[in-house]
């Protein structure tokens, strides 16, 4: 039996740890979709790729957004607070600390990639199907323009990715204006290669939604996928602040705002 245990152990990956029982991935990519309840995506035939990720990654069955409408949810996950925003107004300017500034201050890296952004560093509120309300880093004065990039700048050599990055599809491909299947297909076509790579390169893909379709429950799909992730369904209540806190713990960062009161997600890791 001892020999069997040794053989079995050889096949269990191990990862550099960070705080509170979470791994320290080389890269985390968070992609945000829009305005769908958890059952409208998880288990839906319209989202075969997201469901493949959910079946082979961590599927959080009790994940909740913070509020309605869209913008304050993005700001909350990025900075631990809605910063007083209760609508989708633009422009906004904040001086508060945020995940991007935390990472850069710690000598790590952050970039937000938005589909349809007219040019790097643009502060336009709208351009075609691009909407600044879904790109919270643009609003923070402690982040320079280099952190705000069009999705066309997303590296094809994934080793060149920042430590943490956000990917924001445009208003059609994020399921806001177009179908679940449109967004699902976009995800597979545009981030499927990264998802595959992440399974063997100590990296994580987070598939998340800003809010549901305006119900009181505000339950959303959330999936973690990649080499450090232990596949399964996880029923604990989490929200945008839980995701922020977990990423902060990965890189030994302080907990911003309401992330300080959230619980780190520790049960879905290898």
What features would you highlight for this structure?
nine-stranded mixed sheet; single chain; alpha/beta; disordered N terminus; Alkaline Phosphatase, subunit A
What is the typical, i.e. mean, pLDDT?
Answer: 94
Please report the total strand number as a whole number. Answer: 11
CATH class: Alpha Beta
CATH architecture: 3-Layer(aba) Sandwich
Number of helices: 6
Helical content stands at 10-25%
SSE-based structural type: alpha/beta
Q: How would you sum up the major sheet? A: 9 strands, mixed
- Element pattern in H and E: HEHEHHEEEEEHEEEEH
Round the Cα radius of gyration to an integer and report it: 18 Å
Named CATH topology? Alkaline Phosphatase, subunit A
DSSP strand content: 15-25%
First-residue to last-residue Cα separation: 23 Å
Number of domains: 1
- Give the low-confidence spans: 1-14
At the fourth level of CATH, the homologous superfamily is Alkaline Phosphatase, subunit A
Q: Can you tell me the overall shape?
A: globular
